[in-house]
Write a structure and sequence with these properties.
mainly alpha, Growth Hormone, Chain: A, 3 domains
């Protein structure tokens, strides 16, 4: 006998056996379009802030009296605070109400953004960035869950496509917008720009955001402490690894020991406690777990690629900040196109696994093309590769976010969304750290290998036996030659990173066949 889904506020059907499952939203709203604009604006502002401050760091360093090592805490404090706060999104939403939490977190994000722009020293900036990271941690998961809860189930693919565009385009546009604001106004405007956008979003949400019933549930303090300490240690290890020379430092071993301890303690705690921080049913859902793994991999490849792309374009190929952003924009166009196409195809019954596999193949193909780049690569190949990669990311990201929730009960959406966002952020941190380590190591080994082949027999530009006779001119020639070798070594190192990301994408493909599709 078929069961009937009874929606809150809806009359119970008379004939339970024959009544179909209604295609109605869990939380109906009067003006869905305005709600989507407000929710998406809040999500976009929060995601922009993860990368918009990167290009302004040199200007912040001189203005705040910081050193090159200490100014990176402007980024690290935000990332660590966001990662630690994100896991309690579900509990807070149940405890004080999702609507109230969303509005408070958006308002807090706007206020702390203003405080960051007014900071007078590094200590103030780190404090305000920490508070900004805590406020912004709840915006992503809540925006995703509200877009699902206020839409008909048949339109969930379109909602995830719309939400995913902000998630993917934000990191691409962040450095461009940050560079333009820094060059034309002041570095403080990378934070002040959040004020008008945030207030506009806040006003729309106050008018349209529906209430979701609050549910009192016990707070798992032990679980939160384990997760928070483990995530904070892992983020600090990844962010400070290069500065402390990784495992050559005792600090790195302390971080590693804490992460391993939290991992096994957390496994035992969440398997045995009755009121855990995360509902055990989340981990019993196969689609959700596989989607978390894929999102981790996509975050790793996507954020690492973007972290490598901008410095390669500016420092190695000679493009300006604005030119770099312009060449990166077609990637976002590809994401927008493929997400909308994927949403349309899913509504027409196309298997999500086919779309995800197609997306990975497109991304693998684009990374394979990037392994053939050289210092002479032109803008046409950069744009074409970016579009292909954007198309692949859209075909992966949108179906994954839809499949993750298709078999998940509605009450677990906020917890699920917070975990997915955490996996994406964690993947980005891991990917950037791995790419940075391989880049530095490859530059050193490639430079040594190339320099060993530069002799009188292999080059006619310089006679090394006569360099001493020309004194300053000879030294200048050697410096110029070393610069050429450095550029070639750096290009080889970037290619090695692209090759690694391609191999990681290939390794993730078999997970697709473990998904269980529910139409």
């Amino acid at each position: 006998m078929a069961s009937t889904a009874i929606q809150p506020g809806k009359p119970t059907p008379v004939n339970n056996a024959a009544a179909p499952v209604t295609d109605e939203p869990l939380l109906p709203v009067a003006n869905h379009a305005l709600l989507l604009v407000g929710v998406m604006m809040a999500s976009l502002v929060q995601i922009l802030d993860t990368t918009i401050a990167n290009v302004a760091l040199p200007h912040m360093q001189s203005a705040l009296g910081a050193t090159p090592e200490s100014v990176t805490w402007v980024l690290t404090s935000y990332i660590v605070a966001s990662a630690v706060a994100m896991p309690i999104t579900g509990w807070l939403a149940d405890h004080i109400g999702a609507r109230r939490l969303f509005i408070l977190s958006t308002a807090g994000f706007v206020l702390t953004s203003m405080a960051c722009g007014l900071a007078q020293n590094l200590e103030e900036m780190v404090l305000f960035r920490t508070l900004q990271g805590i406020s912004g941690a709840f915006i992503g998961p809540l925006s995703q869950s509200f877009m699902l809860d206020t839409s008909r189930p048949s339109r969930h693919p379109q909602m995830m496509a719309l939400w995913g565009m902000g998630v993917m385009i934000g990191p691409i546009m962040g450095p461009v917008l940050g560079g333009w604001l820094t060059e034309n106004f002041d570095w403080r405007w990378v934070f002040f720009v959040n004020l008008p956008l945030g207030l506009f979003s806040l006003s729309l949400m106050l008018a349209t955001l529906p209430k979701r019933p609050a549910m009192r549930r016990k707070f798992d303090l032990t679980g939160f402490a384990i997760v928070g300490l483990g995530l904070a240690s892992m983020q600090l290890f990844l962010d400070r690894g290069m500065q402390i020379d990784w495992f050559e430092s005792g600090e790195a071993w302390i971080y590693t020991g804490i992460v391993i301890s939290c991992l096994w303690m957390g496994t035992i705690h969440f398997a045995t406690t009755k009121n855990s921080l995360f509902d055990p049913h989340l981990f019993a859902d196969r689609n959700f777990l596989i989607s978390c793994g894929f999102i981790l991999m996509v975050g790793c490849v996507m954020y690492a690629n973007m972290a490598l792309f901008a410095p390669m374009m500016q420092n190695l190929l000679g493009y300006s900040v604005i030119e770099t952003g312009t060449l990166m924009m077609p990637r976002g166009v590809g994401v927008m196109i493929s997400m909308q196409v994927a949403g349309l195809l899913m509504r027409r019954g196309v298997d999500a696994r086919i779309l995800v596999a197609s997306g990975f193949l497109l991304m693998i193909f684009s990374l394979w093309q990037m392994t053939g780049w050289s210092l002479d690569v032109d803008s046409y190949h950069i744009v074409a590769t970016g579009v292909i990669q954007g198309l692949g990311i859209g075909f992966i990201f949108m179906p994954l976010n839809t499949v993750a929730f298709v078999t998940l009960p509605a009450r677990l959406r906020t917890d699920g969304a917070s975990l997915l966002s955490l996996m994406r952020s964690l993947g980005g941190s891991v990917g950037i750290s791995i790419a940075t380590v391989i880049l530095g190591h490859s530059i050193q080994t490639s430079h040594s290998d190339l320099a060993s082949h530069v002799t009188n027999a292999t080059t006619s530009a310089i006679d090394f036996s006569a360099v001493d006779r020309f004194q300053g001119v000879g030294e200048a020639a050697l410096v110029a030659l070393d610069g050429m070798i450095n550029r070639q070594a750096a290009m080889i190192a970037y290619i090695n990173d692209f090759y690694l990301m391609m191999c990681m994408s290939v390794a993730a493909l078999p997970l697709i066949f473990l998904m269980k599709i529910k139409r």
